[in-house]
Amino acid sequence: MTALPQTDPQTFETLKDALRAALPEAAVITDPDRLAALLAEERDLFESNATLAVAPATTEELSIAARLCHAHGVPMVPQGGNTGLVGGAVAKGGEVLVSMTRMNRIRAVDPINYTMTVEAGAILADIQNAAAAEGCLFPLSLGAEGSCTIGGNIASNAGGIGVLKYGNARELTLGLEVVLPDGRIWNGMRPLLKDNSGFALKHLFIGSEGSVGFVTAAVLKLFPAPAEVQTAFCALPSPEAALGLLSLARRLSGDQVTAFELLSDFACGIVCDHAGGVFPLSERAPWYAVVELSTSRKGSDLREVFETILEQGFENGLIEDAVVAETLDQRDRLWALRERTPEAQKRAGGSIKHDISVPVSDIPAFIAKATQAVEDYMPGIHPCAFGHVGDGNVHFNFTQPDGMDKQDFLAHWDPINEIVYPIALSFNGSISAEHGVGLLKADEISAYRPEIETELNHRLKAALDPAGLMNPGKFIGKGKAQS
C-alpha cells in the first residue's frame, strides 16, 4: 500500500496562516470548542483529533482551501453531517477536516423536470420537505435523515428504506459539482436523464467516500408525491416466508411496494425494552416485516389491494398475524419498531455489526448458515438481524451474551468477521452494502474482493488524486497504486 502522506508541523502552521489569509474568518476553525462536534465519532470506535477544520460557505471557498492544501501537501478529510458508521470522516492531527455544513442551500426545485438542485451540506430531511412543498417526493430515507447531509449520502451511496422502489443515492443523482483534490472545479450539473457524451464521471464520485474529490452540489431526481400510503406490520414464521410475502406483494400490487423491512424477534424485543417501541400484536413471532405500499394516484384501490395481499399471505402460511396502520401516528409507531433498532442495540449492550448484501433469494440461507456458524463459535450470543430485505441488505448484527463483559465481547469482533464475511461471499454477496468502508473495513476489504478490483480501485485513486491527499487510509483498502 502506498505510504500515507505525512505533514511536518512547520508546513501545517504555514498552511494554517495561508488559509486564514485567503478565507473568511468563519471558514477556518481552530477553536477546540468549535472543533468538538466535528471530531465526535458516531460509534466511538475511532479517535478524531484534528486541530484544524475548514468550513467553506461556497464552492469557490472550498476550491481555494483545496488548492492551498494541495500546494502544501496536506491531507484533506471531507465531512458531511458526521453520522457515518465506519469512521469515514475521522480526521487525524496533520490533516485538514473539511466540513460541508455551511454549504447547505437548496438552490432550486423544478416540479416540471422533477429535479432539485442542492448544495452538499443540505440536510436530507430539509430536502425531503422542500420536495414535498412542491408536491414532489425525494425518496431517499434513512434513520439519520434529520442530521445527515446529501453530500455525505452521495459520497457513501446511501441506501435506506426506499431502495426497493427508487434505488440508492446513485440512482437518484443526475448531476454533480465537484472540487477536485488540486482545487479545480468540475461542473457536471446537468439535469439530464440521457447523456452519453463521455464517461459518466459522476459515478467516480458517488460512493467514493470522499477519496477522490469533494461533492459540493448535486442535481437530484424527484418523483410525484404519494397520494396514498398503506403500511402493515406482519408476524412471520421465517425469512423464507418474508420472501414469499414480498413476491406476493409485488405481484398483486403491480410493483407498488415502496419498502419491505425484516426484523427478528430479538431486534423487535430490544426496541420495546430499550427504545420506547410498542408491540402491536397479541403474540410474538420469530420474525416480522414492515411492509409499505404507495401510489401517487388519487382515488386508488390501494387499501383493497393491500388487504388482498394480506389475506393471501394468511392463506399461504406466510403471515401469522398482521396489523395495518389506520393513522399517521400508528404508521409512525410501526416504523419505530424497525427504525429504532440501532438505538436499542446500543442500550442492550455491546454489539458486533455487519452490513451485508446478498441476492434477495439467498437471504434466508445466508441468515441460517451465518447464524449457526457464529452461535457455534460463541454459545449464548444474541443474533440481531434486521434490514432492507427487499433489496438484499441485511444488518447482520450480534449482541453480547447475557453476563459477558462488553469489552470482552467486542474483542471477538475480528474472529466473528472472519466467520461471517466468507459466508456472505459464498453467496456472491458484499461485506459493505450501504454503510461504506471508511476506516472500519479498510484493512480487510481487499481480502474480500477480486485482486483485479483492488488494482482498478487503486488505478482510479492514483489518476484522480495522484498525491494521495483525499481522505487517506480509508475506503480503497490495501494494495499497490498503479500509475
List keywords for this structure.
483 residues; alpha+beta; 16 helices; 19% strand
What does this entry look like structurally?
By secondary structure, this protein is of the alpha+beta class. It has helices at residues 9-22, 32-39, 59-72, 124-133, 150-155, 163-166, 202-205, 239-253, 265-274, 302-315, 328-339, 341-348, 363-377, 406-410, 413-426, 451-464; strands at residues 28-29, 53-54, 76-79, 96-99, 106-110, 115-119, 136-137, 173-179, 185-188, 214-221, 223-224, 228-236, 257-264, 287-295, 321-324, 351-352, 355-357, 382-388, 393-399. Strands 12, 13, 14, 15, 16, 17, 18 and 19 form an 8-stranded antiparallel sheet that branches. A hairpin with a 4-residue loop joins strand 18 (382-388) and strand 19 (393-399). Helix 8 runs antiparallel to helix 10 and helix 13 runs antiparallel to helix 15. The longest helix is centred in the middle third of the chain and has 15 residues, at 239-253. The protein is globular, with a radius of gyration of 23 Å. The model has no long low-confidence stretch (mean pLDDT 95).
